[in-house]
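Hi, here's the filled form for the chain we discussed.

Project: internal
Contact: R.S.
Residues: 174
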Amino acid sequence: MQEKHWSEYQLLHEVVTNPNITVKGQHSYYSDCWDNGFEESVVRYLHGDKISRNWEPRWEVDKLFIGDYVCIGAEAVIMMGGNHTHRMDWFCLYTFMDFIEEAYEGRGETVIGDGAWIGMRAMIMPGVKIGEGAVIAANSVVTKDVEPYSVVGGSPAKAIKLRFEPEIIQAYWP
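And the returned structure, exactly as it came back:
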């Protein structure tokens, strides 16, 4: 086994092969110091990973868009695939294959804006939009959109503060 070190990272534009993931620019990275790398360990697809991407999809496969200068901490998880066929409005949450098409509910595209920082072991749920320059605290679970230049944390993640005064944010990010 290869010994890993905290200083190891992957530039996303060099390692992403999944056609459902778009990486803007050449500066975004993943700190892969303890796992098998970005596509193998971070992005969790219900359909569209390296095994299932060649299958005929039963529904539109959601996309992940990652801006430039994004920093993704070690062991973060980005959930893709809507509700993963677990319907909260059904009495039984079990995935019955006879009703798989009815069970799936998409959540839309997941977007991580330019300059965002996803802390170590944070989890991003499907369909979430993370604004430019936002910070996601370590171990947070992000279930809702995150405003640009805000800091969120907790489970579920809640606003902690803005990185800059609102007037400064408005001047640079109208």
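Let me know if anything looks off before we file it.
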